[in-house]
Amino acid sequence: MNDRLLRSLFPFFLSHPSPLRYKNSHHRVGEKSGGRDRRSARQRRGATVEAMGEDDEKQSEKRYISSEELRSHNTPSDLWISIQGKVYDATHWVKDHPGGELPLFNLAGQDVTDAFVAYHPGTAWSLLDRLPLVGYLSDYRVSDVSKDYRRLAADISKKGLFDKKGHITFIVLCHMCLMFAVVVYGVVCSPSEWVHLGCAVVLGFLWMQSGFLGHDSGHYRILNGPLVNRIMQVVSGNCLAGISIEWWKRNHNAHHIACNSLDFDPDVQHIPFFAVSSELFRGLTSYFYERKMSFDGVARLLVSYQHWTFYPVMCVARLNLFAQSVLLLLSNKRVRGRGQELVGLGVFWVWFPLLVSYLPSWGERVMFVVVSFAVAGIQHVQFCLNHFSSSVYVGPPRGNDWFEKQTMGTLDITCEPWMDWFHGGLQFQVEHHLFPRLPRSQLRRISPLVRELCKKHGLPYDSSSFWEANVRTIRTLRTAALQARDSANPVPKNLVWEAVNTHG
Q: Which residue intervals make up region (Disordered) (predicted)?
């Protein structure tokens, strides 16, 4: 890790920003880098006193802002954030934020240092100078948990783990090309129904690997260069799987920032089909979908049997991702590369129906689509296992308990290293949520460090086997289902719109 990054990360361990900080603190005043200061001691002392006097004068001009005042600037038209005790006005920068506007909207009016550390490389710190500096947080404090978290982030960066991606991307791409070739050859050239069935299974696993690759590319560059990385995102997501990578990034960033918040995290907002908590029966407002999640009569009926319908719905959950992708790209929301995204989806809806049309009968065509969707549905189950049985809460995320919320809302899946291909890094969900930029090949390596940090601060480090995680998820759904049967039955409203806007 370079000196600039070390200087950026280690000051986090202080409980208050230092009032005097020299740009080149490792040189004495008047000393040139690499040379000797030939002035007399009296001259050096005089220069030092003069410099300190200038800094004291600047210090007296600093504006200090309380956390209460910071919280009042939490709207899209008046958005302040604090990073390492410095308060910035990010109102006009929101539209240019690479991670989208939702993370900033959800954390507006708060200190967001931990989230900034999690999502940005060391080179991003210099970019903060472009934001208007409003002042300094007068009551800036760092908890012991945050100190240790930032220290661990610095250690991981010092070891270069954020840059050690390994050969996973190359291996996955080779496997995906091979699987796609097998599927096309089997469907076009073989008359056997069994071969066609096998091709449907292979296509489902191909979509799973495509999803894992898209997940990686959304968090960090899996290939060298932004252009190549962007091409890979559109090809693997839009063209090959029919899912908009920009929709996924918008959805997934909101999920990471507000992990398991019932009204801010889209990954736990599945009304009318599923409810992980009875709190959703109160008709909460989704700040992601910008609508009320009405718990009407039909929703109550569906939720009452959700522990039975969970796996069947997961088999066709892909349909909802298709719909969400199209809805976003046709909306008036800001979408990066909208034309590229639409062309990519167009490519998918050309090759996939064309491939299915080569099958000799409608029975085989239906079988092929259903089986491929069902196999890909395993990935949807994996997404749910990581969060459904974990702790949930109501309200916006808070920047001052980042570590706690990420660990309490996630569940690791224990497995042998040879099964990592099946889980695609999602098995280390706790580690991934704490360090989303870390390549999946390094997650197993830092797992003991995260476990030890959780133990030190008395925080949960939750993990289960794949089977146990399924049992826990069904138990959570069953508990909410039984509670739903005793709830009131309001007049149904807008069921079709609710169903279309349910995240799968």
A: 23-61
| Phi, psi angle pair for 292, to nearest 5° | -85, 135
Residue type, 449: L
- Tell me the sheet residues that pair with 79: 74
Record the tokens describing residue 97, joined without a space.
């934020």
The Cα–Cα gap between 218 and 246 comes to 9
Q: Is the peptide bond before 272 cis (omega within 30 degrees of 0)?
A: yes
| Alpha carbons 92 and 371: distance in angstroms, whole number | 48
Per-residue CA distances from 315 to 306, 339, 380, 473 (Å): 14, 30, 8, 16
How close are the terminal C-alpha atoms of the chain, in Å?
39
> 41: which residues sit within 8 A by CB, 6+ positions away?
none
Instruction: Name the DSSP letter for residue 237.
Output: I
Q: Tokens for 140, please give them.
A: 């800036």
Partners of 393 in the β-ladder: 261
Nearest CA-CA partner of 10 in 127, 205, 152, 215? 152
Q: Are 217 and 236 in contact (CB under 8 A)?
A: yes
Residue 160: Cβ-neighbour burial (10 angstroms; 0-12, 13-18, 19+): exposed
Cβ pair 199, 477 in contact under 8 A: no
Residue type (1 letter), 209: Q
Instruction: For the beta carbon of residue 435, count every other beta carbon within 10 angstroms.
Output: 26
Query: For 118-173, what is each residue's pLDDT tens digit?
Result: 999 888 888 898 999 999 999 999 999 999 999 999 999 999 999 888 788 889 99
How far apart CA 199 and CA 477 sit, in angstroms, is: 33
Q: pLDDT band for 398, please (50, 70, 90 cuts).
A: confident
C-alpha–C-alpha distance, residues 3 and 123, integer Å: 11
Contact status, residue 128 vs residue 82, Cβ threshold 8 Å: no
Q: What percent of the chain has pLDDT over 90?
A: 71
Strand duo 463-465 + 412-414: pairing: parallel
Distance CA 495, CA 295 (A): 10
Which element (helix H / strand E) includes 193?
helix 193-219
Chain CA centroid to CA 60, Å: 41
DSSP assignment of 308-352: HHHHHHHHTTHHHHHHHHHHHHTSSS--TTHHHHHHHHHHHHHHH
